[in-house]
Amino acid sequence: MTVSSSASAVSGASATSSVSLASLAERLDDAARNARAVPQLSEPLTLAEAYDVQRRSIERRLARGERRTGLKMGFTSKAKMVQMGLDELIWGRLTDGMLVDDGAAIDFARYVHPRVEPEVAFLLKRPLAGRVTMPEALGAVEAVCAALEIIDSRYENFKFSLTDVVADNSSASGYVLGPWGDPHADVANLGMVLEIDGRAVQIGSSAAILDHPLRSLVAAARLAAEAGETLEAGWIVMAGGATAAEALAPGSRVRLSVERLGDTGFTVR
Predict the structure, then answer these.
(1) Cα separation of 245 and 149, whole Å?
(2) pLDDT tens per residue, range 171-196
(3) What is the pTM for the complete model shown?
(4) What is the set of domains in the chain, with CATH numbers?
C-alpha cells in the first residue's frame, strides 16, 4: 500500500462541482461493484469533498436496497498517523451488504486487493453523537466483540492519496463479527492473534487502537456529528486495526483470537 498526503488537497480550496463529485462517486461505486481497479483520482479534492464523494457512493448502495449499519474507523494507530503526517482519524460507512457471517466464505473475485485486519467492534444500544466522554461512550454500548475488517482499495496497484482513500469509503469492504460479549469487559489491552491457514501472521494488542478502543468510539461520535450524522442505536462501530493488514488469497482460512472476547473467522474461495 502506498499512501501520499498533500496539505493542499486536504485543506485547500477546490473548484470541483457537485456534478463532478457525483461522477466520482459513480466511478468508485462501479469499481467496487465490478471488482475493477481504477486509476488514482486526478481531480483535486479537499478532505470535505472526499467525504462528500464517499457519502454519495454509499447513497447509491442504499438506493439499491442496502441498509446502513454503522461506521468504521481508520488510521487509529498513532504510529501510522505520525508516519502520514496526520492529526486526525479517517472513517467510512458500513452497510448490511458488507456483513460477512462468522465462519462464512467470501468470493475472492468480488474484491480488487482484499486484505484483512483484526479489530474490536461495538454494538450500540442508544444513539451517540458529538463530543462525549469515554464513560458516556461506554454507556451507549450494548455489547463488544472480536471483529475482522476486510479492506479493499479500488485503486490500481493499491496506491492512493489521503483524499483518494476517504472518497473510496476509507477502503471499507466487509466486516466479520464474533460472538457478542459483556460491554463492560475491559478491552484496553487484550492480546490479539490473527492466523491465516493456521499460522500466526499478526500478534498485537487492542491497546494499539488509540491506546484504548473506546477512544475510537469517542472519536467516531465526534467525527460523525461533524458530518451531520448520529451513531444510531443498533449500529456497529469498528474501532480500527490493531495490527497491519494481511493480504488475502483464494483458499485462505482466516481466524482471529482475542483475549476474553473469543474467536471469529472466515474463509476465501
Answers:
(1) 9
(2) 999 999 999 999 999 999 999 999 99
(3) 0.92
(4) 67-268 (3.90.850.10)
